[in-house]
Specification:
By secondary structure, the protein is α+β, with helices and mostly antiparallel strands. The protein contains 3 helices and 9 strands. The strands form 2 sheets. It has a 6-stranded mixed sheet with strand order 4-5-6-7-8-9, with helices on both faces. A 3-stranded antiparallel sheet has the order 1-2-3, covered by helices on one side. The protein starts with 12 loop residues before the first strand and ends with a helix.
Length: 150
């Protein structure tokens, strides 16, 4: 896998039926190592190890109802009451983070009403705080550490 714009973390890998797998520290199982999964796993380590978000409040690939559609959140961080505080949308490194990607996470957030959003392709990361009164998001230079979020 290519080098991403995250700190270096240690990962557990294995091969099964000619496929590379990576151990997901939240789901506690090996998952197929696709380019998007590589970004998700690096982002999970970033959130848990660098930003100190608790693993017990972290959700991976959780279903969210958006209108009549079932969507999946790549990563979400909840508060202790189970309310989603942060939604992370992960894309493969070759995917550009354009308006379409931001529109996607904004649609997901319409139901979740998270305070913070993160969009990453592993190379570029964008963080924003929602301002629901003004119906806009404000870009942040970095994601707050865990105590600053919840």
């Amino acid at each position: 896998m290519i080098r991403l714009n995250f700190p270096n973390y240690e990962f557990r890998f294995k091969s099964r039926e000619n496929k590379m797998l990576v151990f997901d520290i939240i789901r506690k199982k090996y998952v197929a190592l696709t380019p998007e999964e590589w970004v998700r796993q690096n982002c999970l380590h970033y959130l848990l190890k660098t930003k100190k978000y608790p693993p017990g409040l972290t959700l991976v690939e959780r279903q969210l109802k958006v209108g009549d559609l079932d969507k999946r959140l790549d990563i979400a961080i909840c508060d202790r009451q189970g309310r989603i505080q942060l939604i992370v949308e992960c894309k493969a490194p070759e995917i550009s983070l354009d308006q379409k990607v931001f529109d996607q996470i904004a649609r997901y957030n319409w139901e979740a009403r998270a305070d913070l959003l993160m969009v990453t392709n592993g190379i570029n990361h964008y963080f924003c705080r929602m301002d629901y009164e003004k119906r806009e998001y404000v870009f942040l230079p970095e994601l707050p550490d865990y105590p600053g979020l919840i």
